[in-house]
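We were asked to recover a plausible sequence for a given structure. The inputs and outputs are reproduced exactly as logged, with field labels preserved.

PROBLEM: sequence recovery
POSITIONS: 158
GIVEN STRUCTURE:
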């Protein structure tokens, strides 16, 4: 298999896994108190640049499939893209990889919730709740995933 085909395949598989995780855990994936388990995949840019379009497309498809507001589709997906890119740039230190998804989502998503869904909670409160969900999913679950995959990366990622 050539490199381009492998890259596209990796991205597609990551996107599919993201969408399935959002589907299975739909009840906790949306709203002002979010625990989107799929966000654990945001550590994958540590292993492969294909994870950047993978998690971005996964987020986009999840938001479209679950009929998210257009502001959520646009800005939520953009936040995921930026976070994945920055995580890739920080791959020199595995402990820094989950920081961009945590910070960017804690900053962007509360504004989306406020203006797209007219959430009544104050933005600072939602920054804390969304940030806490991101710490749990990207920070804790993501790092468990990173350490687990790090042991077998030579079998999975090329």
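RECOVERED SEQUENCE:
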């Amino acid at each position: 298999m050539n490199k381009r085909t492998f890259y596209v395949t990796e991205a597609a598989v990551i996107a599919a896994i993201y969408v399935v995780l959002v589907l299975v855990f739909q009840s906790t994936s949306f709203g002002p108190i979010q625990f989107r388990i799929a966000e654990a995949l945001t550590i994958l840019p540590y292993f492969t640049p294909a994870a950047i379009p993978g998690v971005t497309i996964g987020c986009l498809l999840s938001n479209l499939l679950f009929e998210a507001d257009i502001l959520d589709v646009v800005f939520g997906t953009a936040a995921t893209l930026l976070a994945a890119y920055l995580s890739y740039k920080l791959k020199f230190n595995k402990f820094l990889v989950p920081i961009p998804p945590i910070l960017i989502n804690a900053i962007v998503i509360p504004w989306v919730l406020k203006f797209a869904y007219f959430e009544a909670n104050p933005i600072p409160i939602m920054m804390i709740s969304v940030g806490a969900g991101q710490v749990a999913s990207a920070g804790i679950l993501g790092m468990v995933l990173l350490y687990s995959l790090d042991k077998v990366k030579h079998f999975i990622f090329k």
